[in-house]
Specification:
Altered inheritance of mitochondria protein 32; Aim32/Apd1-like; about 350 residues; alpha/beta; Thioredoxin-like_sf
C-alpha cells in the first residue's frame, strides 16, 4: 500500500510556480505543430448533448496513463460493459490478468503498471493440431509481441504470460527493501515463455481507437467513425489494411529462426491493423487514438522510421485529422503537437513534449 501511494505521487505532474526553470529542451522525436488540412471529403464531426462536450481547453500534453505495457485482449467485439472484467459473466482473459497484475494482485507492481485492455481484433483460430481448443489471443505493446493461443481451460497459460513476458527484467530502486523472495517473484522469468506456443513479432502498424461506448458515449461515437476514416485513408497512402484473425502455425517459430528472427514479412506495401479498444482515460478528449509503429518499420525512402518502436497517443482527433495523421505520423514519423497526449518507447520510457 505504501509503495502504491509513493508510485502515485511520483507519477503526478509537477508544476513549479515562482521559480526560474531551465529552457525546455527540444523533444527527442520529430514533430509538426499542427495537422495538415484534409484534401478529401471527411465524415462530419459528431455533436454531443450538454455535459458531454469535448474539452478543447485543457493542455493534453503528458495526459496519458503511466504504464509499462499494454495487453490487448482480442475479443472480436466492438464494445464491452463499463467494467471489462464483467464481460461474459466474468469469464474472460482481462479478468484473469487483472487478478494477477491488478491492484492487490500477486504480481502487482506500482512501478511497472500493466494496462489490460479489450480490443476488437479477433483471436487467432486454434492450432490445426487442436481444433477443439478454446483460446484467446493478445497483443503486447510496446513489446510488439503477438500471443495467439491462451487456452481458456487453464490458468497456467495466463500466469506464464505474466511471468514470461509482462513482469519487469529489473525492479525499481524503491523495491530494494523487499525480501529476496518477494523481489524474485516480481521479476520476469524467460523460461515461462516456453509454455506459450506460436508467439510472434508484430510487424504491422497497430492503430488503436477508444470505442468504449459502454463506458462513455463520446468514445462510443468517435470509435467506429474514426476507424472507418482510417480504413479509407490508409489505402489511399499505399498502406494495406489487414483484417481478420492472425493466422499462426507452431512451426512458424522455427521458420523465423531459419529466416532470421525479426525479419519483416515480404509485402509490397506497409501494412496496418485498426482496432477499437476499451477505456484508456480521457473521455473528454475523444477521439482518442494510439498508434504503435513496429521496431522494424521504415519510411517510404527506405530509412528507419523515426518513431519505430514507439506508441503515440493522440486526443481530440476528428475525422478531418486522419489523412494528416497517416501522412505525418505513420508515413513520415512526425508527431502532431496539437493532438499529442504523450507516447512510449519500446523500453518503457514515457514521452512528452
Amino acid at each position: 500500500m505504501i509503495l502504491q501511494r509513493v508510485a502515485q505521487v511520483c507519477a503526478r505532474p509537477i508544476t513549479l510556480r515562482g521559480f526560474a526553470t531551465k529552457a525546455k529542451s527540444p523533444p527527442s522525436f520529430p514533430t509538426t505543430p499542427t495537422c495538415p488540412s484534409p484534401t478529401c471529403a471527411c465524415a462530419p464531426t459528431p455533436e454531443f448533448p450538454e455535459g458531454f462536450e469535448i474539452d478543447h481547453k485543457t493542455n493534453i500534453n503528458g495526459l496519458i496513463s503511466n504504464y509499462a505495457q499494454h495487453v490487448l485482449v482480442c475479443t472480436g467485439k466492438d464494445d464491452w460493459p463499463s467494467r471489462i472484467e464483467d464481460d461474459n459473466s466474468g469469464d474472460n482473459l482481462a479478468a484473469d490478468l487483472r487478478e494477477l497484475v491488478g491492484r492487490g494482485g500477486q504480481f502487482n507492481d506500482p512501478f511497472h503498471n500493466i494496462s489490460v485492455l479489450n480490443a476488437s481484433f479477433p483471436s487467432s483460430p486454434a492450432p490445426k493440431s487442436r481444433p477443439e481448443l478454446q483460446t484467446t489471443s493478445a497483443y503486447l505493446l510496446p513489446s510488439f509481441k503477438y500471443v495467439p493461443w491462451l487456452p481458456r481451460v487453464s490458468f497456467d497459460s495466463v500466469e506464464a504470460l505474466v511471468r514470461g513476458y509482462l513482469l519487469p527484467e529489473k525492479l525499481h530502486p524503491l523495491h530494494d527493501g523487499l525480501s529476496p523472495i518477494h523481489r524474485d517473484r516480481l521479476l520476469r522469468k524467460p523460461a515461462y515463455q516456453n509454455a506459450l506456443y506460436g508467439v510472434k513479432d508484430v510487424d504491422e502498424v497497430v492503430v488503436l481507437i477508444c470505442g468504449h461506448g459502454g463506458r462513455d458515449q463520446r468514445c462510443g461515437a468517435y470509435g467506429p467513425l474514426l476507424r472507418g476514416e482510417f480504413e479509407k485513408r490508409l489505402p489511399e497512402k499505399g498502406i494495406e489494411v489487414v483484417t481478420g484473425p492472425v493466422e499462426v502455425e507452431v512451426d512458424e517459430t522455427v521458420q523465423a529462426l531459419e529466416d532470421g528472427e525479426g525479419k519483416k514479412d515480404e509485402r509490397a506495401k506497409t501494412a496496418a491493423r485498426i482496432g477499437l479498444i476499451s477505456h484508456i482515460g480521457g473521455h473528454k478528449f475523444a477521439g482518442n487514438v494510439i498508434i504503435y509503429i513496429p521496431p522494424n518499420q521504415t519510411t517510404k525512402d527506405g530509412v528507419r522510421h523515426p518513431l519505430a518502436g514507439h506508441g503515440i497517443w493522440y486526443g481530440r482527433v476528428e475525422p478531418r485529422h486522419i489523412e494528416g495523421i497517416v501522412e505525418e505520423t505513420i508515413l513520415q514519423g512526425k508527431v502532431v503537437e496539437e493532438l499529442f497526449r504523450g507516447g512510449i518507447t519500446q523500453d518503457g520510457k514515457i514521452l512528452r513534449l
